[in-house]
Each structure stands twice: as structure tokens, then as C-alpha cells.
Design brief:
Length: about 475
């Protein structure tokens, strides 16, 4: 009798311990998967992706809570995020920051060719800053190229395409392609195409669906074959096609400066599908589109010198909404979009003519333009230094002077800081909904597990009671 009781209690204890162990393993597996899901929401180059959409499909902060402020001496505009880290540059080094704390993981001295270095992800084991390739995990220098440089001029946005494994550069009056199929060694030159109206400054190069969209100071927009450099089409416009545009779903969008016009091109044929001009709806307020676009949710977003942030429907060219900042903007930056929100500098202290403006950084509802929150800061527009990655907003706070188009780089004040904004994320604890394991799925799985264990325990207790009754019955027969 005592032996039966001891074995029964032992089995019951083992079942309980097994239940706790399985529950812990399930929770840990779910948490690990959630952390991995957050890591997929990276920002591998300063415009987000090779199509310059400046959109993240992951979560983004609803509040302006400052999680940390990291001090990086001499930090320059632009950030990128990949391999679970945040990357920034100074005029003498590349720096990797911990995404949770802002602490410096590594800092590698680099001989920069020019100011404002930009860090690009090539793959999980290689990043490029100007002419140098580093290991993203350690900061170790892999190679230095005497011929290739990722930065080629002031406001000349170059692009790496992981789809083509090629880097596309604007070099004076040409667009060049460099082969990165073996990133362990310096890239090789592939092709060069003449682009009329080229120059050293202010021309962006965007990739999309096998095409390279080159900018020009002439009144034209061109598209090149990404593999050969052949001209696919050239379309006349009313003003220069400079700075940056975005590719999405078969169209290319770019805001014109001189003519204050947003253009939507058929990316295959070059046909102008529509144009949007704020002046046609509202009295002229000295506006122009300039630095670059963002695309998401069927809209194209861009701030304008007139002080408004515009959301325009990509299918129709109709205005969806516009948000008015505290005044006109000396030189607009570009928006970042994620999780139904638009983040952008909407007010600047610096103004032409000596009068002072007001700093403002705003978070807007991407569908209505309503204000969610705002801060009295700037994020270095027109070199807007923001990104959304790992569920947070990262930015470099700073201002610009009315000498924004100078060559020296002294027109920017960065305060030597990098900020992280959003909700606190605790490693190995937080459970985040994912496409394969939503909170509802996790809850159902947990309930099934608990129910199964309880059924086993109940069956065992029923068995134990039956054994005890049988033992009692045998004892009575013996007596």
C-alpha cells in the first residue's frame, strides 16, 4: 500500500515538473522568435531600401518617449540599422551602437574621402562606408578600394541593390555600376552611362525592378537598364529632376524643385501618369519639393518648402492630406513611414532673410495627417537623419544654418547625439505578435498545453483512486 502511494506521488510530481518545463520552453521559444521577428525590421541603407521607399513594415512608436541618448563625438548625418545594431559615421570613423542601450559596440578609424559618410549593408558579413569594407559584427577592415567610393558628391544619393548585387553611383555627369557579387574583395567596374545635366551635387540615383532612375539638372528623367546601363527611356519634364525619388509597384515618383511639381512616371515606358502641383489648389507660398520622397499605403509623402507635409495618392495623383508646420522651411528633409505613422522634420529655426523659425519634429497619422505627437527638435533636415528599425525610431537631433548648400560641412550642428524613441523592449522577455505566432495563437497553444496536462493529471488521479479502493476492498476480504 505504501509503495503504491509513493510511486503515485512520484509520478504526479514528475508530471507537474514536466508541465512547468514544457510551458517554460514554449514561452522561451515564443520569446526568441519574437526577438528574431523584430530584427527583420532593419534599415540597411540611409533611404531604407534600394527603392528609396523609406518605409518599415515593422512596429513603430506611438509616443515620443526617449529611451536613450548616446554621445558620439563628431557624429555626421544619416543612420542605418542591420545585424541588430545602429550604424553612424563621423568624419574619421564608422561606429556601431547597441540598439537597446546606445552603447558603442565598436568604432573603427577610417580615412574618409569627404564629409558626411554613409554606411551601407552589403550582406550580413560586409558593410561599406566610402572606400572601405568592414565586418559589421566586429568592425574589422576587410578591404580598402583605391578605385571605388560609395560617396561621390554633395546630396548625391547613391544606392546598393542586393537584388542585382551592384552598387550604382552618380559620378559627375555619369551613372556607374560596380559589381559586388564577391564582397570579400573590392568591387569591379561594370558600366558607365552618360546622363545629360549631370553635376557634382544634388542628384539621387534610385533602383527599382531592374532599372536605375538617374537624376539630372536638365528638364528630363531617365531610366537605365540595371545590368547593362542602356538607356530605357528619357522623358521631358518642366523642371530639373534632382535629389531623390522612390520606386514602387511599377511607378517612379520624384518631386521637382524649380517647378514645385510631384511627378509620377510609368517605370517601364517613362510616360508621365500624373503631376501634382500645390499651387493649383492653394495660393503660391514659395514652395518646392526637394530632398526626397517616401512611399507607403498607396501614398507618396514629402515635405515642401512652403511648410506643409504632403500625402498624395499614387494611383490618382490627388491630395490625401497636408499638414502645416509652424512656418516655412528653409530646406525640407524627407519622411520616414512605419506602422501607420509618418515621422518628419516639419519646422526649422534657420530661415532665409535673417528671421528665425521654429524647430518641430512631428509624428503624423499616415492616413489622415492628424498629429500623434511632436517635439521641439529637428533631425538635421535636409539631411534628414531618421530611421525606423527594431520597433523604434532612431534619429540624430540637430539643426542647419542658411549656408546649407556650403561645401565645408560646417552648416550643421548635430549636438554629438543619437536618440532612440519608443517603448522599452526587454530582451528575452517581451512577446511581440508575428505572422506565424500571434498573441492569440500563443494563447490558444498555451491553453491546449494546460488542458492536456490537466487531463493527464485527472486521469491519473482517477486511476489512483481506483487502485486505493481496490486495495481497501482486498484488505476487507482478507479480514
Amino acid at each position: 500500500m505504501n509503495g503504491i502511494r509513493i510511486h503515485a506521488l512520484t509520478l504526479l510530481a514528475l508530471l507537474f515538473v514536466s508541465f512547468l518545463s514544457v510551458s517554460a520552453v514554449t514561452l522561451q521559444a515564443q520569446t526568441t522568435a519574437s526577438e528574431g521577428d523584430l530584427l527583420q525590421y532593419d534599415w540597411p541603407q540611409f533611404k531604407g531600401d534600394s527603392s528609396f521607399t523609406r518605409f518599415s513594415a515593422g512596429p513603430a512608436p506611438d509616443t515620443p518617449d526617449l529611451l536613450w541618448s548616446a554621445h558620439v563625438t563628431g557624429v555626421q548625418p544619416y543612420l542605418s540599422a542591420f545585424n541588430g545594431m545602429i550604424f553612424v559615421g563621423t568624419n574619421t570613423s564608422a561606429v556601431a551602437l547597441d540598439r537597446y542601450t546606445g552603447s558603442i559596440i565598436w568604432e573603427t578609424p577610417i580615412e574618409m574621402v569627404r564629409e558626411w559618410p554613409i554606411i551601407y549593408k552589403i550582406d550580413d558579413s560586409h558593410l561599406v562606408v566610402q572606400s572601405t569594407c568592414l565586418n559589421p559584427q566586429t568592425g574589422e577592415v576587410i578591404w580598402i578600394s583605391p578605385d571605388f567610393c560609395a560617396d561621390t558628391g554633395i546630396f548625391s544619393s547613391n544606392v546598393y541593390s542586393p537584388e542585382e548585387k551592384m552598387f550604382y553611383l552618380k559620378v559627375d555627369s555619369y551613372t556607374e555600376a560596380w559589381d559586388f557579387s564577391n564582397p570579400q574583395v573590392p568591387p569591379t567596374f561594370v558600366w558607365r552611362t552618360y546622363v545629360p545635366g549631370g553635376g557634382r551635387t544634388g542628384i539621387g540615383t534610385t533602383y527599382g525592378d531592374g532599372k536605375v532612375f538617374a537624376g539630372s539638372f536638365m528638364n528630363l528623367q531617365m531610366a537605365l537598364d540595371a545590368k547593362t546601363g542602356d538607356v530605357l527611356w528619357s522623358t521631358r519634364t518642366k523642371g530639373p529632376m534632382i535629389f531623390d525619388g522612390s520606386y514602387t509597384d511599377g511607378v517612379f515618383l520624384r518631386g521637382g524643385t524649380d517647378d514645385n511639381t510631384m511627378y509620377c512616371f510609368n517605370a517601364t515606358t517613362g510616360e508621365i501618369i500624373w503631376t501634382y502641383i500645390p499651387d493649383e489648389e492653394y495660393p503660391y507660398d514659395g514652395g518646392y519639393f526637394t530632398s526626397g520622397t517616401a512611399v507607403a499605403y498607396g501614398n507618396v509623402y514629402e515635405p515642401n518648402k512652403d511648410g506643409y507635409v504632403y500625402a498624395i495618392n499614387i494611383a490618382t495623383g490627388q491630395l490625401v492630406w497636408r499638414y502645416k508646420g509652424p512656418g516655412t522651411v528653409l530646406w525640407p528633409g524627407f519622411a520616414s513611414v512605419a506602422d501607420g505613422k509618418v515621422y518628419v522634420t516639419s519646422g526649422e529655426i534657420a530661415q532665409y532673410g535673417g528671421k528665425g523659425g521654429t524647430s518641430e519634429f512631428v509624428c503624423l497619422d499616415a492616413f489622415t495627417g492628424e498629429v500623434i505627437w511632436k517635439l521641439p527638435i529637428e533631425a538635421l533636415a535636409p539631411r534628414e537623419s531618421t530611421l525606423v528599425a527594431y520597433g523604434r525610431l532612431y534619429l540624430i537631433p540637430g539643426t542647419v544654418t542658411d549656408a546649407v548648400d556650403a561645401i565645408s560641412g560646417n552648416e550643421y550642428t548635430t549636438f554629438n547625439q543619437v536618440w532612440a524613441i519608443g517603448e522599452q523592449i526587454v530582451p528575452d522577455v517581451t512577446i511581440v505578435p508575428t505572422p506565424t505566432a500571434s498573441p492569440a495563437t500563443f494563447a490558444v497553444d498555451s491553453l491546449i498545453l494546460v488542458a492536456a496536462v490537466l487531463i493527464i493529471v485527472i486521469l491519473f488521479l482517477v486511476f489512483l483512486v481506483a487502485v486505493l479502493r481496490l486495495d481497501r476492498h482486498k484488505r476487507r476480504e482478507t479480514l
